[in-house]
Amino acid sequence: MSQLAIASGAMRNRPALRRRRAKSGVYTGLLIAALLVAVGALAWVLVYVGVEGFSAISVNFLTHNPPGDPAAAGGGFFNGIIGSLIVVGIAAGIAIPLGIGAAVYLVEYGKGSAPGAIRFVNDVLIGIPTIVTGAFVYAIWVTHFGFSGFAGSLALAIVMLPLVTRTTEEMLRLVPNDLREGSLALGATRSQTVLRICLPTALPGIITGAMLAVARAMGETAPLLLTALGNELFTEFNPGRRMETLSLQIFTNAFTGFKEAQSRAWAGALTLIAIVLILTAAARFFGRRVRTAGP
Amino acid sequence: MPPPADAGGGIAVMRPGVSRVSLRRQRRRWGDTVFGSAVALTGGLVLVVIVGMVVFLVLQGLPAMQHYGFFSFITAGRWAPSEADPTLTHPNPYGILQFMYGMLITSLIGMIIAVPLAIGAALVITEIAPRRLQRPLSSLVDLLAAVPSVVYGFWGIFALIPAIRPIVDFLTSTLGTVPVIGVVFGGPFFGVSYFTAGLVLAIMILPIIAAVWREVFRSTPRNEKEAAFALGATRWEMIRIAVMPRARSGIVGASLIGLGRALGETIAVTMVIGNAVLHINPSVFSQGATMSSVIANEFTEATEPFHLSALFVVGFWLLVVALIVNVVARTVVRRGVAL
Q: Which of B48, B46, B95, B339 is nearest to A105 (CA)?
């Protein structure tokens, strides 16, 4: 703490104090500037997508498929929106129960060094590039059954699984031990305690985590290129076949070089951002309720 | 609350008809065991997935690895699928050094820009902003992470590139003409480039790094901050002597988590880097490719001999790099703060 001693010694020296205050002011200003740049970048992206998107979006866009000729005006990404909902829906159906199960194991059942190791691997899995996840699903699924919406769901489920596990685990840890002990003391088994006491108590937080994971999956594109592949022009409800998603359509239409296709892609980008932001905001709303309801 | 039926079961033990009750208890125990085993299986799933990734990427890459040799991919820097000839094993037309270079240089540019900005943002949110602004400001920075990758790429092409073009043109005509370092800053600039990809990456990893740092800075004991102020420290001095020393390992860990994300980011990079796969381009303003971008760009059109298999080799090495960076990052972060 020698710096402190120097600092307090300098107090008697007025010009030095002024210099230190000025230095502090300059650094504080730089830090605030850094925050403003970050917020400015966000504003730039959102405003740009908003302006381009609102000038292209319409009811027609949300209810029609793209025209056969990419240079033609009109049409929309109905097939991609449906595809996104189906692919992400199946992925959520796979990943959320498995993630909650894994978190229950980590918090309520795991003994010895296994939970620590699994938690570590789970964190590492969060950082694995999603294109690698896509390649993995291609290897285990697409090589046998072909490109399909379900293959895309598998890839997104692998992206979501560690996210759901981690947030659920954190929420289960917040459940007070008194509740568990009370339940066990009344004669309930461990599984009953988990299913009727721990999970319901942690539910709002679990929902928050699940929604954030769904929001993340909605925007994923890379793994879907290798699995769902897209089908361009028609609506597909069967997840056993190739499927278009909103993210894939934005990606392919952005590069066509046709103004009309690009404006459809902007409308798609606005739709996607709106879905993701609504999910994120709703998740935060649930998250706030957790914190105020907590002990 | 446990259901009344079960509570009654516990009391019934005292009464006659014990065998029936104990049977029910056994069934309950059995159900408990099944539930316990089931969650243990789901817990082990992440291990299966990680191991499965390594195994299956190697299996898919094996034909190319056997044909050209395991290490020939990372010692060659020329990717020319059209030159692939199944009868030749040398030279390897699927060299991936230029993708490693592209991955590292774009991530480096992203880190150089994002790290100081994220430090500033995190410090302002935890130490400088008024208490009632802290939550909204955190949410705003977090929103940057919520914007999908494909949207960043699209925005990069149409908004970012026109905006940086005058600056880059100026740099290529000044720095680009200086001997020696001019090679790194040389033109011509076509918009899509390593530099553009690095900028987009900076925006994408900023919120991730800032989020970890916020937690790190928040863990500074309040009394140490107050002690610094009580001794007459200015705000900056308080940050330097009370907040920063404790945050050091967290700072490294958070940067590494951001780096891990930058190395593997795919779609946004693919959209703004130009996908020039042939060889390393020395200028940061020239077009290139990264490990992930070449997979995304060529995967569904891989028709040359060993082409698809070679892309799996790229995926394998990308996975190796990502595993190393993430394992180190998580180890450092875990030691520093409980995250």
A: B46
Does A130 sit within 8 Å of B235, measured CB to CB? no
Residue B91: how many CA atoms within 13 Å on its side-chain side?
Answer: 13
What ipTM does this complex have?
A: 0.89
pTM above 0.90, yes or no: no
Residues of B in contact with A45 (CB under 8 A): 147, 151-152, 155, 159, 203
Beta bridge partners, A124, equal none
A91 domain residue, yes or no: yes
Q: Which residues of B touch A37 (CB under 8 A)?
A: 117
- Chain B contact for A69, CB < 8 A? no
Cβ within 8 Å, pair B57-A132? yes
Q: Looking at the structure, do residues A38 and A88 belong to the same domain, yes or no?
A: no
Q: Do B299 and A226 touch (CB under 8 A)?
A: yes
Do A84 and A143 share a structural domain? yes
Q: Is A207 within a domain? A: yes
Q: What is the tally of structural domains in chain A?
A: 2
The Cα of A219 is separated from the nearest Cα of chain B by a number of Å equal to: 5
Stretches in chain B below the pLDDT threshold 50: 1-15, 336-339
What is the pLDDT of chain A when averaged over all its residues?
88
The kind and range of the H/E element at A253 are: helix A246-254
3 state SS of B190: coil
The nearest CA of chain A is from the CA of B166 a distance in Å of 18
CATH number at residue A196: 1.10.3720.10
Q: How far apart are CA B146 and CA A153, in angstroms?
A: 20
Strands (E), chain A: none
What are the structural domains of chain B?
4-68 (no CATH), 97-336 (1.10.3720.10)
pLDDT tens by residue, A160-182: 999 999 999 989 998 999 999 99
Judge whether A236 and A244 are in contact, CB under 8 Å.
yes
Query: Do A80 and A27 fall within a single domain?
Result: no
pLDDT score, position A9: 52
Give residue A204's domain range: 64-293
Give the per-residue pLDDT at B8: 39
Residues A40 and A176 in one domain: no
Q: Do residues A268 and A249 lie in contact, with contact meaning Cβ atoms separated by under 8 Å? A: yes
My answer on whether A68 and A163 are in the same domain is yes
Q: Is A250's CB within 8 Å of B137's CB?
A: no
Residue range A242-246: average pLDDT? 90
Q: Chain A: nearest CA to B92, how far in angstroms?
A: 22
- Domain membership of residue A48 (yes or no) is yes
Residue B232 per-residue DSSP state: T
My answer on whether A44 and A116 are in the same domain is no
